[in-house]
Amino acid sequence: MFAVTGTLPTNIAVDRRMMLLTNVEPLDELFDQYSTLLGADLPAYRNHVYRLINFCAALSDDSENRLQKLVVAGFFHDIGIWSAHTFDYLPPSDALAQAWLEANAKSAWSGEISAMIQQHHKLTRCDGDSGLGGLAEAFRQADWVDVTHGLISHGVPRAVLRAVFAAFPDAGFHLRLLQLSCRRLLSHPLDPLPMMRW
Fold first, then answer.
1. ∠ CA 124-126-131 to the nearest 5 degrees?
2. Lowest mean pLDDT among 31-35, 69-73, 122-126, 139-143
3. What is the dihedral of CA 131, 134, 140, 142, to 10 degrees?
């Protein structure tokens, strides 16, 4: 269904000074597979995901399989916007990630990937994250770093922020989210941001 071949460490081009992840082959393979679904939003979403995994890598410990998990959660975390045509996208995003994990014999990561996706818009710290390796909280913080364009940095060094934003420009991602937010507000005025969690 969605094959990821090779090992991530040998497929990553890294700027050793900043540890900037610029080319993660399995991630790009997923973008190739979903290019038709993403359509004109592909460059914007791709850059968002690359910013997110770079910030999350800067905020988390180098745990076993960390980058592989970031690829899966990063790619699928917002994909429900396009796959299910909804702004209530966390459940369909998580469902696609779980299907990918099952198809690729990675079901052991199910709980952690689900926490990363389901809690990445939490306003408060992730629940029970320590038992899941700590990536869910780093992922949540990384998304806030990107959403606020570094205004909330969660400790990511300014030099890293500058390098990541320069390497992966917005390309209209936040404008697209604003458009979708306005559309959701008009259609669901009592529930305009269903992805937000406390």
1. 155
2. 122-126
3. -170
Residue 122 per-residue DSSP state: B
Global pTM reads 0.83
Summarised one tens digit per residue, pLDDT across range 79-128 is: 999 998 886 889 999 999 999 999 999 999 999 999 999 988 787 787 66
Which amino acid appears at position 124 of this protein? T
Rounded Cα distance, 2 and 187, in Å: 34
Element (H, E) at 24: strand 20-24
State the Cα–Cα distance between residues 127 and 180, nearest whole angstrom: 28
Q: What's the confidence (pLDDT) of residue 69?
A: 95
Q: With the CA atoms of 56, 59, 61 and 66 taken in that order, what torsion angle do they form, in degrees rounded to the nearest 10?
A: 0
Angle between helix axes 66-76 and 42-59 (nearest 10 degrees) is 140
Using alpha carbons, list the distances in angstroms from residue 60 to 15, 25, 137, 157, 169.
18, 21, 9, 13, 23
Q: Look at residue 16 and give its three-state secondary structure.
A: coil
Instruction: Please state at what angle helix 66-76 crosses helix 25-33, rounded to 10 degrees.
Output: 20
pLDDT confidence of residue 188: 62
